[in-house]
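Below is a filled-in request sheet from our internal design queue. Each sheet records the structural input a requester submitted and the sequence that came back. We keep these sheets so that new team members can see what a complete request looks like end to end.

REQUESTER: design group, bay 2
PRIORITY: normal
MODE: inverse folding
CHAIN LENGTH: 382
BACKBONE (tokenized):
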């Protein structure tokens, strides 16, 4: 493996439901779900059946052709997002690719020739390819690769900073509704509503990166539904196909006219295997009521976390099944390691935050397992 990869935490060989098993036979309760990817957990029969059926039918055709699953998925995303009759979908293969497409969309919002600025947030994460990295508000990530695409400004996450930065030279404001990699951090009250007002007034696009927050994760199909706004475009990836690589840019209404023939594309993007997988995941989320489950189990899980009377736990953040635990001291890596020892996978995105994002299928049994294992991990720190 390239040295850029972190050292692996374990060698995982199989999974089932909310559990995975390593090469020594040790089982772990997976409350990270491949970083909010395994919506249906591991080896879900509906996804297994869809992938098996599709690979035996038609797996890839290139973007010269349409396939029924691709059209079905695009129509579903248009319906689920409320992108409207004019809504359009571009398919790529990852979150970074979805944001690359969003970056190009933003560049196209420049009829005046003066709209050269894209605003994003400090501490945000939008991916690792050059344009996605340019959007990402973490200077240390970019520094080794300068120069990155220009025109991106990173604002402090305050309404005042946004008000100050907005004018008619802004092509797009691109935001994570909840900053996932930063440790599951919400925007200030009223931020998204104000961003919607200002982008509308100045003719900028409001693009939401729902790569981590989308597909039921926060207890709504998309996180922006919590805030009563409608964006001009969103990017989706992680949970969409339950572990099969896929990414999507969905444009709403007039933003759908910006990218013109030949201006973007992907050989693998929207292939029948990935889109059939996504359709199976969306079917299961709808029929099993997993968006509501995310809301309900998320509330229960936050309750469990808040009930731990630990001096280490300062606050519990997030919505639905995207949960951040703010710590009173930089102990995140130690807690995550102790949890691994107790057979529990959770994540330490930074020194003072834990991120918890179980599969959307999580139920009573897994929550009580979590309570026990997390409790033991906290005890065994000292
Ligand atoms: C994971 C993530 C990305 C990048 O997705 P990749 O599939 O790793 O390229 C972009 N934005 C957000 C908010 C993410 O959580």
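RETURNED SEQUENCE:
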């Amino acid at each position: 493996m390239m040295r850029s990869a972190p050292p692996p935490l374990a060698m995982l060989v199989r999974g089932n439901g909310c559990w995975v098993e390593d090469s020594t036979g040790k089982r772990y309760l997976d409350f990270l779900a491949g970083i909010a990817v395994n919506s249906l957990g591991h080896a879900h029969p509906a996804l297994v059946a869809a992938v098996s059926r599709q690979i035996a039918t038609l797996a890839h055709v290139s973007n010269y052709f349409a396939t029924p699953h691709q059209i079905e998925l695009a129509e579903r995303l248009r319906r689920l997002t409320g992108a409207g009759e004019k809504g359009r979908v571009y398919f790529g293969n990852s979150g970074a690719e979805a944001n690359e497409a969003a970056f190009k969309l933003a560049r196209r919002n420049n009829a005046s020739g003066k709209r050269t600025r894209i605003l994003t947030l400090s501490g945000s994460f939008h991916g690792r390819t050059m344009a996605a990295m340019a959007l990402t508000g973490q200077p240390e990530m970019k520094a080794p690769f300068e120069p990155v695409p220009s025109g991106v400004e990173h604002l402090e996450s305050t309404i005042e900073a946004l008000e100050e930065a907005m004018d008619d030279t802004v092509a797009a404001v691109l935001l994570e509704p909840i900053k996932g990699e930063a440790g599951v951090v919400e925007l200030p009250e009223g931020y998204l509503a104000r961003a919607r007002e200002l982008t509308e007034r100045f003719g900028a696009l409001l693009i939401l990166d729902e790569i981590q927050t989308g597909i039921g994760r926060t207890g709504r199909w998309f996180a922006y539904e919590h805030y009563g706004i409608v964006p001009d475009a969103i990017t989706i990836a992680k949970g969409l196909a339950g572990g099969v690589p896929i990414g999507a840019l969905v444009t709403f209404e007039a933003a759908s006219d910006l990218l013109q023939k030949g201006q973007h594309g992907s050989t693998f993007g929207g292939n029948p295997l990935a889109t059939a997988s996504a359709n199976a995941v969306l079917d299961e989320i709808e029929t099993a009521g997993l968006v509501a489950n995310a809301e309900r189990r998320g509330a229960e899980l936050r309750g469990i976390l808040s009930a731990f009377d630990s001096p280490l736990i300062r606050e519990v953040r997030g919505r639905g099944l995207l949960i951040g635990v703010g710590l009173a001291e930089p102990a995140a890596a130690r807690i995550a390691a102790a949890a691994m020892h107790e057979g529990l996978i959770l994540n330490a995105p930074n020194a003072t935050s834990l991120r918890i994002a179980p599969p959307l299928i999580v139920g009573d049994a897994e929550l009580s397992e979590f309570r026990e294992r997390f409790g033991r991990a906290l005890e065994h720190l000292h």
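SHEET NOTES:
- The pocket of pyridoxal-5'-phosphate is lined by residues 94-96, 99, 125-127, 176, 180-181, 209, 211-212, 237-238 (CB under 6 Å).
- The chain has a mean pLDDT of 97.
FILED BY: M.R.
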